[in-house]
From TrEMBL:
Record field: transmembrane: 407-426
Name under which the protein is recorded: FAD-binding domain-containing protein
Keywords: FAD, Flavoprotein, Membrane, Oxidoreductase, Transmembrane, Transmembrane helix
Keyword flag Kinase: no
Length: 476
């Protein structure tokens, strides 16, 4: 590939999506830099359920075995009421038959570190935030500011592509949308505040004595979703291979709000919903909720008391899919262009699938790509990803309505509970068919009984790889 003039990619945001994109570009020998405004990425959050949809890619990257060793295989979710006992069990054991892979619960921090090792340290600029973006016909330029008392100089970087992977309140998206709005090109829905109708506490305990939780010592262990009897709260717990418990407590709000509305309330002197005080208040409000398992009676309070306080956070659960994902040489991925409720456990997967599709299409760009070449690649990226994102978005919304005891959710629950086995298998089959890979890396043998769907970006990258291989004798 030495005779191929490849673009330089500027990636803003070192979350899971940004890291994976960097790791893939590293393997493709494409120049890139990652910018992360935080000095360090704190290991906040609960566990992530990762399974068949990403395992073939992890195998290509050579991290599958390490991932499996770090994860805890889980094959079912047991849904219960606080005082009414189990309502149903949702099994994912069929995933192993269909794909050859289990689902795994893995602490977010461990998955993050696993991906971080794939990116050379000098290619990630921590503590460097983007303050302005400028674009020309041939280049995109960003100005950054370093969060370092000994080095506060502003810097300028140039590349051919700018990727906004910087989260729900993306600086890249905000600046892109400001420009498009001035030009009269921004849809009205993209000008609205990012809405949320639930908040949550998330955390992970320190290693604890699992003898009191025999259910979590099974090789294939479940995780548990419990709904309060008379209050709008749901709590979810699961085990990890590190003998910790990952947990989440969701508070379903009476009305839709936004970050801007909450900030205005705080400015007007009303109680702020955010920060350590708010998290502590929610802990006290919910610590009496009983755990559905264990050899003795325990509550969420026992879980909170076993969790380092600095690892507990209260967050908004925004839900929105933006219409505009790209313009010119700028493109968005992950939470920057679609924010999913974590009820469906698809947020991290969709972000990483975005990164993969984008990497495939960047790899397939012609030598010295023009602006129109890049725009076409971005268009193909959104066209491929939007159906999968919308399916995950709608599933997550449905699950969040169920946990809020919304009538729509209850109807869906009773339909799901009475679903015939053959229909359940068809549904599961569809869920696990989306198993894309990197087209220029070694192809992975298909496991299980169901072949993955054809990914247009994978096929395009693979065709370009073989063409270059024939022309120049390149290797994977």
């Amino acid at each position: 590939m030495s005779n191929i003039k490849k673009p330089t990619v500027l990636i803003v945001g070192a979350g899971l999506g940004g890291l994976l994109l960097g790791a893939l570009l590293e393997r493709a020998e494409i120049s890139y830099i990652i910018f992360e405004r935080a000095l360090v990425v704190r290991p906040l959050g609960s566990g992530l359920i990762i399974g068949p949809n990403l395992m073939p890619l992890f195998e290509q990257l050579g991290i599958m075995e390490e991932f499996i060793a770090l994860g805890k295989a889980t094959t079912e979710c047991i849904i219960s009421r606080e005082k009414g006992g189990p309502l149903c069990t949702v099994s994912t054991l069929v995933h192993k038959e269909l794909t050859g892979y289990y689902n795994y619960n893995i602490p977010r921090a461990l998955l993050y570190d696993l991906l971080l090792k794939l990116v050379p340290p000098h290619k990630i600029h921590f503590g460097e935030r983007v303050i302005s973006i400028a674009e020309t016909e041939k280049k995109v330029r960003i100005h950054t500011s370093k969060r370092d008392i000994y080095d506060q100089k502003e810097r300028t970087y140039e590349g051919e592509i700018l990727v906004g992977a910087d989260g729900a309140y993306s600086t890249v998206r905000q600046q892109l949308y400001e420009r498009l709005k001035k030009e009269g090109k921004l849809p009205l829905t993209d000008q609205e505040d990012l809405p949320f109708h639930s908040t949550c506490l998330v955390g992970q305990t320190r290693p604890i004595d699992m003898d009191v939780f025999p259910e979590f010592q099974q090789p294939l262990c479940p995780f548990y979703n419990t709904m309060a009897a008379n209050e709008p709260f749901t709590w979810i717990i699961g085990a990890t291979a590190q003998k910790t418990i990952t947990w989440m407590v969701i508070h379903n709000l009476d009305s839709v709000s936004s970050k801007a509305a909450e900030q205005e309330r705080a400015w007007n002197g009303e109680n702020s919903e955010w920060g350590p005080v708010a998290a502590k208040a929610m802990i006290e409000q919910t610590r009496h909720y009983p755990l559905p398992i264990g050899t003795k009676k325990m509550t969420m309070g026992d879980i909170y008391d076993s969790t380092p306080k600095e690892l507990i956070s209260k967050v908004m659960l925004e839900e929105k899919v933006f219409e505009t994902w790209y313009s010119g040489r700028t493109v968005l991925l992950g939470d920057a262009c679609h924010k999913l409720n974590p009820s469906g456990a698809h947020g991290a997967v969709t972000s990483m699938h975005d990164a993969l599709a984008l990497a495939n299409l960047i790899y397939a760009l012609p030598s010295n790509p023009t602006s129109s070449d890049i725009t076409q690649a971005f268009s193909e990226y959104q066209t491929e990803r939007i159906p999968h994102v919308m399916e995950s978005f709608e599933n997550s919304q449905l699950l969040s309505k169920f946990m809020n005891r919304n009538i729509t959710g209850w109807v869906a629950f009773f339909l799901m509970k009475g679903l015939p086995g053959w229909v359940f298998r068809i549904t599961k089959r569809k869920m696990v068919q989306n198993r894309p890979t990197a087209g220029w890396l070694q192809e992975i043998d298909v496991r299980g009984t169901v072949a993955p769907d054809v990914s247009p970006s994978t096929e395009k990258a693979r065709a370009v790889f073989w063409k270059r291989h024939q022309e120049g004798g390149i290797s994977r």
